[in-house]
From TrEMBL:
Its EC number is 2.6.1.2. Keywords: Aminotransferase, Pyridoxal phosphate, Transferase. One of its GO terms (cellular component) is cytoplasm. Homodimer. The keyword Transport does not apply. This is alanine transaminase. Pfam families: Aminotran_1_2. Its cofactor is pyridoxal 5'-phosphate. GO terms for molecular function: L-alanine:2-oxoglutarate aminotransferase activity; pyridoxal phosphate binding. PANTHER family: ALANINE AMINOTRANSFERASE (PTHR11751), ALANINE AMINOTRANSFERASE 2 (PTHR11751:SF311). It comes from Mionectes macconnelli (McConnell's flycatcher).
Length: 536
């Protein structure tokens, strides 16, 4: 044993242990005198090592111990390619030279981030609800104030900061029901069947959660379109349900064929219990708009096979092609007669995030659920009550979507002008995108009938496919990574949405301003031609 600071043999043990404790606490060790220096004994060093070893014990939560269903979740829209885009943005900010000056994030339908202007009336009402003192300001129109007062009267303490009922503010659910009746030509809607949600995604996840049950071959199967919006495959993975794919027909503008539904259903019955059928109309990522006959066929199929229908209708305002029209599943179901209308269980979804509004950040949405068993209705409300309530500002925003200015009101002219400007612009960009893609060798793009994305099919040479395999990437992921690294354009590979074996696609939003979109499409064209030359 060495000498302690005081000079006596063995006398340093207390001081050494004091030093160990100080180090463990994150402080520098001190002896009894300011000018003294601690000389560590081998025993003290061993104690310090022991403390450090205990401090770095194994983590409780690891990739091996975490919930395997969460680990199985994939969400391509914000997947590896978007992370790579973020890294490139950081490098650009540091002054690292690239063949481009900015990253264009065409991977997601985030309208305002792409430069779309908010709808004035919607923002005025939400501003009034958020800061009620503005109700005395002459800068705001009376029709906006009237709506804000009505919403605030439905809030506890007349404040947007209070919790609401789990199903949402009652007067807003009444407005949603009135909107549905107007949209569907008088088909009745009951506010009690309306549930306000945190975007449409929250409602879809809640309904799936309550539908999924069983084990082994009786585990619930959920039929989803391929290509699909990755929310569905992610929710199915998280809930440990069985994904049942049915393929849209790319050769017929991504049409839905009931014979394909029947094939998928019959094959799935061998390994699960298919009881949910999901429809996205207008389509995401494919942009098709289903005609009336197709919807009737789907409803008849669901009725015949006793399937619970989920109708994702968040793009119902985004219809561009001549001869195309949005028909809600609820309306067609009602018009098919009482045998269908009184029996087919249907959940329909809408949102503030898309359409002409593009208010993604408010996370406003609703679902209408009809023909639900009364006892299940109680279970659904119980499930929703766990998250207390949807964001109240989002509920207010949803109210303006379903209760906009009407002819004769002060804000009507400006509202209609802004709404039509957004939708006409999107229609122009949909046609521009389709035309420009179809002029590129090795690229084929179906008409963008609706929604806000293109999903072109791309030819990838076998040499590029081999290189992708060497990098352990799907071929279209390899293509999209190269596109990002060489042009700064971020799109999502088709493999993230699902596609037929041997085909390759990517999804790109049409939201950038027209001039920027033209530049983006020209860059894609130049890249694709060089890519074909390189890997020919």
């Amino acid at each position: 044993c060495g000498r302690g600071p005081g000079g006596s043999r063995g006398g340093g043990s207390d001081t050494a242990l004091l030093g160990v404790a100080s180090v463990a606490a994150g402080r520098q060790p001190r002896g009894p005198r300011r000018d003294s220096t601690v000389r560590w004994s081998s025993a003290a060093k061993a104690s310090a090592v022991n403390i450090n070893e205990k401090a770095s014990r194994e983590k409780i939560l690891t990739l091996e111990s975490m919930n395997p269903q969460v680990k199985a979740v994939e969400y391509a829209v914000r997947g590896p390619i978007v992370l790579k885009a973020g890294e490139i943005e950081k490098e650009l900010r540091k002054g690292i030279k690239k063949p481009f000056t900015e990253v264009i994030k065409a991977n997601i339908g985030d309208a305002h981030a792409m430069g779309q202007r908010p709808i004035t009336f919607l923002r005025q009402v939400v501003a009034l609800c958020t800061y009620p003192n503005l109700l005395d300001s002459p800068s705001f129109p009376e029709d906006a104030k009237k709506r804000a007062r009505r919403i605030l009267q439905g809030c506890g303490g007349n404040s947007l900061g209070s919790y609401t009922a789990s199903q949402g503010i009652n007067c807003i659910r009444e407005d949603v029901a009135s909107y549905i009746e107007r949209r569907d030509g008088g088909v009745p809607a009951d506010p009690d069947n309306i549930y306000l949600t945190t975007g449409a995604s929250d409602g879809i996840s809640a309904i799936l959660k309550i539908l999924i049950s069983g084990g082994g071959k009786s585990r619930t199967g959920v039929m989803i379109p391929i290509p699909q919006y990755p929310l569905y495959s992610a929710a199915i993975s998280e809930l440990d349900a069985i994904q049942v794919n049915y393929y849209l027909d790319e050769e017929k503008c991504w049409a839905l064929d009931v014979n394909e539904l029947r094939r998928a259903l019959n094959e799935a019955k061998a390994y699960c219990n298919p009881k949910v059928l999901c429809i996205i109309n207008p389509g995401n990522p494919t942009g098709q708009v289903q005609n009336r006959k197709c919807i009737e066929d789907v409803i008849h199929f669901a009725w015949e096979e006793k399937l619970f229908l989920l109708a994702d209708e968040v793009y119902q305002d985004n219809v561009y092609s001549e001869g195309c029209q949005f028909h809600s599943f609820k309306k067609i179901l009602y018009e098919m007669g009482p045998e269908y209308y009184n029996n087919v269980e249907l959940a329909s979804f809408h949102s503030t995030s898309k359409g002409y509004m593009g208010e993604c950040g408010y996370r406003g949405g609703y679902m209408e659920v009809i023909n639900l068993h009364p006892e299940i209705k109680g279970q659904l409300v119980k499930l929703l009550s766990v998250r207390l309530c949807p964001p109240v500002s989002g509920q207010a925003a949803m109210d303006i979507v379903v209760n906009p200015p009407v002819p004769g009101e002060e804000s009507y002219a400006q509202f209609i002008k802004e709404k039509e400007s957004v939708l006409n612009n999107l229609a122009k960009k949909a046609k521009l995108t389709e035309d420009m893609f179809n002029k590129i060798p090795g690229v084929q793009c179906n008409p963008l009938q609706g929604a806000m994305y293109a999903f072109p099919r791309i030819f990838i040479p076998s040499k590029a496919i081999e290189e992708a395999k060497a990098h352990k990437m799907a071929p279209d992921m390899f293509y999209c990574m190269k596109l990002l690294e060489e042009t700064g354009i971020c799109v999502v590979p088709g493999s993230g949405f699902g596609q037929r074996e041997g085909t390759h696609h990517f999804r790109m939003t049409i939201l950038p301003p027209v001039e920027k979109l033209k530049i983006l499409l020209e860059k894609v064209k130049d890249f694709h031609i060089k890519f074909l030359e390189k890997y020919a």
